[in-house]
Write a structure and sequence with these properties.
The protein is of the alpha/beta class and 271 residues long. The protein has one domain: 3-Layer(aba) Sandwich (Rossmann fold), CATH 3.40.50.300. It is 37% helix and 21% strand. A six-stranded mixed beta sheet has the order 6-7-8-3-9-10, with helices on both faces.
Length: 271
């Protein structure tokens, strides 16, 4: 297969997503450098870190919105940024993205927003598209809001509608950018449960970029911790492993700051 990595072929197994010696920036000093990791099939993989550590920059690179200055991003064992444009765009259709604000088209109803990827990228007829739209909306509990516009939805409803759209093409890999941002604790927990259910029902590999540690520690199988001073990752492991006493000092300080009452207006003692 064109663009398939030598390592993937040698191992006989291809990770849904991998970064190899990745360096990413915006023309000046790199925001991230020498970053390498693999996301396992069917897991919920968290990415966390303080402000300015490069979480959003990394996600943009992984989904094909920002080219790296060095290294590789592998989707299904294929080097995303070395593929011809048409092949890269085709590969990108195997991933879904739920952006922080939902990014729904304000002039379209919920139903029309979810149908849009199906209209653009499939040969399904109208009846088939409508059936799939109904299915996706029922999955996220939004069937009764199909004919509403984004301005008529609460923050949690917009997130669920955006998730239905992200699931429209049945992606193998699904990205969430700060899914709990702007949500009250009850709504945020319900969204966590929806993410878990999506992973379990469909075996979807999920990457969650978030600063909400309570949420990440509830749902993630493994978490990558990015450190702003190191300009890269200093820890990768299960939530239990990251809590251990031998964690890097910067990670310990980060977790302790978030466990303090009143941080960001909340207490996260549950970590």
């Amino acid at each position: 297969m064109k663009g398939e990595s030598r390592q993937a072929r040698a191992n006989g197994a291809v990770a849904p997503l991998a970064a190899r010696a990745l360096e990413v920036g915006y023309g000046g000093p790199p925001v991230l450098r020498e970053l390498s990791f693999e996301v396992r099939r069917g897991e919920i993989f968290g990415i966390m870190g303080g402000s300015g550590c490069g979480k959003s920059t990394l996600m943009k690179c992984l989904v094909g919105l920002l080219a790296p200055s060095a290294g590789e991003v592998e989707l299904r064992g294929r080097d995303l940024w070395r593929l011809p444009l048409r092949e890269r765009e085709q590969l990108q259709r195997s991933i879904g993205v739920l952006f922080q604000g939902g990014a729904l088209w304000s002039s379209m109803t919920v139903r029309e927003n979810v149908a849009l990827p199906l209209e653009e990228f499939t040969a399904l007829n109208r009846a088939e598209r409508e059936r799939l739209v109904r299915l996706k909306l029922e999955l996220v509990g939004m069937a009764d809001a199909a004919d509403k516009f984004p301005s008529e939805l609460s923050g949690g409803m917009r997130k669920r509608a955006a998730l239905a759209r992200a699931l429209a093409l049945d992606p193998d890999l699904l990205f969430f950018d700060e899914p709990s941002a702007g949500l009250d604790p009850v709504t945020a927990r319900r969204l966590d449960e929806l993410i878990l259910r999506t992973c379990r029902l469909f075996g979807t590999t999920i990457v969650v970029v978030s600063h909400e540690l309570g949420s990440l520690f509830r749902i993630a199988d493994r978490i990558l911790y990015l450190d702003v001073d190191a300009r890269g990752a200093v820890a990768l492991g299960t939530p239990e492993e990251l809590r251990r006493g031998d964690a890097p000092p910067s990670l310990k300080a980060f977790l302790e700051s978030w466990a303090s009452p009143g941080h960001d207006g909340r207490s996260t003692h549950s970590l």
